[in-house]
Write a structure and sequence with these properties.
This protein is α+β, with helices and mostly antiparallel strands and 133 residues long. It contains 3 helices and 5 strands; from the N terminus they run ααβββββα.
Length: 133
């Protein structure tokens, strides 16, 4: 076999092996929180005034989303947004809240600007729990 053909075969096999190998998660990629933690996050979010905890009118949620875990200054942060219908007529309210998860404890952060620019995913746990109350 000529040297060029052998080199081409080796490169072709290396490229095929690289595509077939399992890929590691990219640095900074976000892992989904456990279902138990998602339930705790949803329960804490629904206790916030922004999410209708103090409302004489019934509210319902659609299209809730969560971002996180986000590593920020050594803290783990989750960001929750949603569309809340019921307190206003017509357009939905779009509340959002940032939560810090530290030592198996969730606390609400005053600064939700930490959440800008992070990828979100659907948060059906909040929709289900919020619409069941």
């Amino acid at each position: 076999m000529p040297p060029r053909a052998a080199l081409a075969l080796v490169l072709l096999l290396a490229a095929a092996a690289a595509q077939a190998a399992p890929r590691k998660a990219a640095a900074g990629s976000e892992d989904a929180p456990s279902p138990a933690l998602l339930q705790r996050i949803a329960a804490l979010v629904l206790k916030q005034v922004e999410f209708g905890s103090v409302s004489l009118l019934p509210v319902r949620f659609e299209g809730s989303r969560i971002a996180g875990p986000i590593e920020e200054s050594g803290k783990v942060i989750y960001c929750v947004t949603g569309h809340m219908y019921g307190r206003t007529f017509g357009k939905p309210e779009k509340p959002r809240v940032a939560l810090r998860y530290e030592a198996d404890r969730l606390t609400v952060l005053d600064d939700d600007e930490v959440c800008t620019g992070h990828r979100t995913r659907p948060f059906p746990e909040l929709d289900a729990l919020g619409n069941a109350r």
